Amino acid sequence: MKRSARISMVAGTAAVITLALAPIAEANWSSSITAASVGFESRRWSDELYSQITFHNCVTDGSKSTDVQIWNDISLQPDESYDNKTFTACFNGSVSNGEWTDLPSGKRDYYFQIMKIGGSTFGPQLTVGSLTVDTTKADG
Fold first, then answer.
1. Which of 13, 73, 96, 140 could form a disulfide with 90 if both were Cys (CB 3.0 to 4.6 A apart)?
2. How far apart are CA 33 and CA 137, in angstroms?
3. What pLDDT sits at residue 102?
4. Strand, helix or coil for residue 43
5. Structure confidence at residue 112 (pLDDT)
6. pLDDT tens-digit readout, 33-66
7. Does residue 118 register a pLDDT over 60?
8. Nearest alpha-carbon partner for 36 in 60, 70, 67, 65
9. Alpha carbon distance 64, 87 (integer Å)
10. Burial of residue 42, with CB atoms counted within 10 A of its CB: 0-12 exposed, 13-18 middle, 19 or more buried
11. Could you tell me if 82 and 102 are in contact, meaning their C-beta atoms sit under 8 angstroms apart?
12. Taking the mean position of all CA atoms in its chain, how far away is CA 14?
């Protein structure tokens, strides 16, 4: 086998393995967060037009708020951000709810990021007893 054919075969096999091991972006999911710092990124999910995030049972060692922002995960480019939401209700036994209704059409991968905790970009940590990502509202 010629050297160039062998290199092409190895490169092609590596690409297939990379795709097979790539994380799958799920639509709806539930989880929790333990001792997260500012900058924490959630796992990815696929959606279009609408996503909703709810936090239940939030605890922090600072003031009682956290800022959550959705990002479009774009390969090999800077990610695109959408509205920042400040969650406070989950700290007093209620549910904090953020809805993003301005997402572009066409399936894309998204994640949320903790932008501030207690109004600060450093220091406090956040624990969320349970959270959900819901994409089931009628997409276009």
1. 96
2. 24
3. 83
4. coil
5. 98
6. 999 999 999 999 999 899 999 999 999 987 899 9
7. yes
8. 60
9. 9
10. buried
11. yes
12. 27
73 vs 15, which has greater pLDDT?
73
Cα 51 to Cα 73: distance, rounded to the nearest angstrom:
14
For 95-112, the pLDDT digits (tens) are: 999 999 989 999 999 999
Residue 103 token pair: 């997402």
**Residue matched to tokens 């600072």:** 62
Widest CA span of the chain, in angstroms? 68
Q: How many residues does the chain have?
A: 140
* Pair type for strands 45-47 and 80-87: unpaired
